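2024-03-11 09:14:02 DEBUG pipeline.ingest accepted 1 chain
2024-03-11 09:14:02 DEBUG pipeline.ingest length=161
2024-03-11 09:14:03 DEBUG pipeline.predict start
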Amino acid sequence: MGADLYIKSISDERKKQFEPLFEAAVRLRDLAETEVQRQIAQEQVHKYYDEMYADGYFRDSYNLTSVMARMELSWWNDVGPMLSKKTSNLSPRKAKRLLEIIRERQIQALTVDEIRNAGGTIDDGENTIANWVQFWIDQRLELIAFLEKAISLKEPVYCSI
């Protein structure tokens, strides 16, 4: 579960371009006769899936990784009331307001115990506190860039929250 945001003109075009390739790769994977063939096809499945969502799309999960939660914001309570009741769109004007709110916020890091209690892993390798914080900082920057793009295109953001 999570919030899925789309700039439809971009995301629809990417889906149109890459979904047939994705589906073909899935068929090849499902028909593979050996593990090596299956693995090669699966790499293509991942590649085309990632391409479909590489632009015009932003996702924030409702779990430990949520950048909105780390900014002490809520998709339901803070963004939900901004959405058109009819279309679930965030207008460019409201996207600009959300962007202002996000720019005012900083990432509120969790403690080691809070991360562990939420099901996260803390270790000396890939899952250090510093890496968790950097992940949230990167997600915040991606969300800002996504909203800036929608605003510059003067397009609404479709939100499934």
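2024-03-11 09:14:41 DEBUG pipeline.report The CA atoms of residues 9 and 50 lie 17 Å apart.
2024-03-11 09:14:41 DEBUG pipeline.predict end
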